[in-house]
Amino acid sequence: MIRVFGFETSMPDLKFAAWQVIIFFMAFIIPILAHELWPLASDMRPIDALGLFADGLLFAGVLITLVFAFGLDSRALSSRDHNFPFRLAIAILGGGGLVVVGFSFLPFLSQPPGFLAASLTLAFLGILATRNLFGWIVGLGGHARRIIIVGTGETALKIYNLMDRANPTRYELVGFYPTGSATSAITPYSTEVLDRSKTLGDLASEHCVDEIVVALDDRRGALPIDDLVKAKLSGVQVTDLVAFYERECSTIKFEQMHPSWIVFSSDFRLGIGRRIAKRIFDVTAALVVLTLTAPLFMLVVLASLIESRGRDPVLYHQERVGYGGRPFRLHKFRSMAVNAESDGRARWARDGDDRVTPLGRILRRYRLDELPQLFNILAGDMSLVGPRPERPEFVRDLTASIPYYGERHCVKPGLAGWAQIMYPYGASVEDAKRKLEYDLYYIKHASVVWDLVILMRTVEIVLLGRGVR
Length: 469
Fold this sequence. Notes:
Shape: globular
Structural class: alpha/beta
Helix content: 40-55%
Strand content: 5-15%
Number of helices: 17
């Protein structure tokens, strides 16, 4: 694995990113060269090679950033996947808009924007046409990571299924290494159980193993620590269950980790400099979004007054738990009937919730009911990105039943969040557990750059209306 901007990636993934950059660069260059070299062109002029190169790099850099932001960077995605062409089109069109802005404000960029439509079309078609051919073009077969899974229980089987589901071309399972546990869940894969009479180091050397993943149901008395140390010292990467899930699923399995894992982790810190940068980013972005969405505010207010005939309030205020566990008043456009909780009991939202008004369904579908929280951000109660704030009644129950739940309050709650991108709307304790795993991952990796990625991914979710109740 290779560490880039704090995240681990593989050489095939880097090759794949480079391949897409080349496609985008050539998509920009080809229309301009075709025009400049066309013998019948009436406005032929010498080609500024340096300017053309700079413009092409900007074009490719912007598009690859949008592709990553929209989650289209995975080699496991196919152009035949549901919504892939639409998501790719949105990412490329958004990149085109940013390139136009760049051409307007950066004086050294010299190419006319008239070629942009042709370049964006070529970029879109180029990715669709060559994505599934990438493995054959660059020969990925020899780059699959060879892995030994230590364990033969349910946990080992989960890791195996995760490897196969995440990207079948990325990993090659050498086998399962038994540790003496009586529990075995890999009977269908018994041919891949390795010879226990050999040490892990010998097996790793014999099979040219790149990584050993420890996936034991119970480590007590079963962890082959001496073998793992020798394998580690011989250059083989040794990964525990929590780190493997973190890398492959962008989540932290808190049920598998110990408090010492957080204590000794090199992350989970947001120093004063990063806090100041995050606050400046929050205020600036909130003001920009408020300015751009001012017409939407007026439309929503007007529609709400028409729906209720002016009898019900437009805004809804509710107490939520924020930074450090302190309560604050969260603002939203009202999307439920005014007597939705007339009995005083806090209830989770649910599918087809009959408390939601017709206008409220539209507001929730496109997240318009959340817009007033921009004022919470300006007031300092919230951030643009962070764990979603919950009601005190839910926080009290969830903290008592879910380990580490209170740790999500070590950062400000957010209007958008990693959990909201990766997991559908939560409406139960089990949903809260799964979302906490993504919240912990965000807290560990929090940065302004990461916030930008999450915000751009959130735009896609809003456009597609996903994860709504």
